Amino acid sequence: MAHATLSHSSRFSRLLSTSRFLRKPSPLFAGEGFRCCCSAATDDTSPSPRKRVVSGVQPTGSIHLGNYLGAIKNWVTLQDTYENFFIIVDLHATTVPYDTRQLGKATRDTAALYLACGVDISKASVFVQSHVCAHVELKCLLSSSTPIGWLQKMTQFKEKSRKEGGENASVFLLTYPVLMAADILLYQTDFVPVGEDQKQHLEFARSLAQRVNHLYGGRKWKKLGGRGGSLFKIPEPLIPQVGARVMSLTDGLSKMSKSAPSDQSRINLLDSKDLIADKIKRCKTDSFAGLEFDNDERPECNNLLSIYQIVLGKTKEEVMEECKDMSWGSFKPLLADALIEHLNPIQVRYHEIIAETGYLDKILSDGADRAIDIADATVHNLRQAMGFYMRNSAN
Ligand code: ATP
Ligand code: MG
C-alpha cells in the first residue's frame, strides 16, 4: 500500500468540493461560537483540500442533552464546511462494567440519534469504532510511547476509577486516553468538537502526537523508506462557547452524564414529553428572587437559563431581558415546552430511522469502508517508522 496518500486516495473526499470558507477555517470558527483551545499551529501534513473533523460518543447509555448541546449539535453546524468522521466509540464503553445485552442496542441507538440530530451522511462518515481494526492497532503502537504518569494524572481516570473502587478499575480505563488519541490521530484530524470535559484528553492526544512525531517521524522515518515529515497532524479541540458543560438537573455543580446513577439528573433525547416536563418540574433550583446568569452561588440557575438560550437559539441578553423578573414557577413550564418542541422532530426522525430495516447497517458499513482507507494508511506509516518488518503482499 502506498503510504501517506491519505485523503487523495479516499473515495469520500473526491465527492466533496472546496469552499471559500475553508481557506481560513480556524479563526472563523473560533469567533463563531467555538473556542479553539490550542495556541500551537496545526501541522499541515495532509494533502486534503478539506480540513477534517472527528468526534464521537460512547454508547454507555442514552444520549442526553449534554451530549447533544456540547457535541452533536455542533457537528451538524460544522459538517457543511469540513470532511467529517463521526464515530460511535463502542470500545470506550467497555472501559467500565457494562451490560453485554445492551451494548449493541446502545450502539445502534447512538448511530440513529446522530442522524436524527441532523448528521448528514452525504457530508459525514458515520461508523462504529470496533468495525475499524486500526483503532485498536494504533492504540497498541501508541502505548509504547505513552508515559504511564500522563495517564495516572487524567481527571476522568481519577473520578471513574474511584467509582469502580480504586484498584478494581480496569487497565482499559487507565489507557482510555490512548485509544481516544488513536481515534483522532488515525484520520490526520484538524478539529475535534467536544464538550469541556474532554479538553484534557485532547491535550493528551496533542502531546502524544508531538512525542511520536519527534520519536519516529522526520528524517528517521525517511531513512526507513518513508515519506519523512510528521506522522500525525496535531488536532485542535473545538469547544462551544455555550453548552460546553451542561450540568446535572439535580446538582448544578456536576456534569450531566450518561453514567450518573439517577435518570432524574438528565434529559435524555428520547425522553417522552411527560417525562421531560416532570424532570424540569422537579429539577433543583434555589430561593433567590428573579433569574440570572453567571452568579456562582446559583449554578442551577445559570445552567437552566443556558439550556433555554441554546434550544431557542436566543442571545444571552434576550434571555436575560425575558426572564430576569420571573419566578421558577413561571420559567420552568417555558423551559419544558422549549425542550419538548426542540426534541420532538429529533424523536420522530429517530423512530423512522430505527424502523427502516437495513438502513443503519448500510450507513455504518459504508462509513467504516471510508474510514478504513484512511486509517490503514496511518497505521502503515507508523509501523514503517517504528521499524517493523513490513509484510510483502506480492509474495
Ligand atoms: P459517560 O458518563 O459514560 O462518560 P458522557 O455523558 O460523559 O458519558 P461521553 O460519551 O463520554 O458522554 O461524551 C460524548 C461527548 O459529549 C463528548 O464530546 C463530551 O465532551 C460531551 N459531553 C458529555 N457530557 C457533556 C455535558 N454534560 N455537557 C456538554 N458536553 C458533554
Ligand atoms: Mg464521558
From TrEMBL:
Origin superkingdom: Eukaryota
GO molecular function terms noted in the UniProt entry: ATP binding; tryptophan-tRNA ligase activity
GO biological process terms on file: post-embryonic development; reproductive structure development; tryptophanyl-tRNA aminoacylation
GO cellular component: chloroplast; mitochondrion
Record's keyword annotation contains Protein biosynthesis: yes
Catalytic function, reaction form: tRNA(Trp) + L-tryptophan + ATP = L-tryptophyl-tRNA(Trp) + AMP + diphosphate + H(+)
Gene3D superfamilies: HUPs, Tyrosyl-Transfer RNA Synthetase
The keyword Ligase is assigned to this record: yes
Subcellular location(s) per record: Mitochondrion
Keywords carried by this UniProt record: Aminoacyl-tRNA synthetase, ATP-binding, Ligase, Nucleotide-binding, Protein biosynthesis
Enzyme Commission number, as recorded: 6.1.1.2
Pfam family, one: tRNA-synt_1b
HAMAP family listed in its UniProt record: Trp_tRNA_synth_B (MF_00140_B)
The family this protein is said to belong to: Belongs to the class-I aminoacyl-tRNA synthetase family.
NCBIfam families per UniProt: trpS (TIGR00233)
Protein name: tryptophan--tRNA ligase
Source taxonomy: Eukaryota, Viridiplantae, Streptophyta, Embryophyta, Tracheophyta
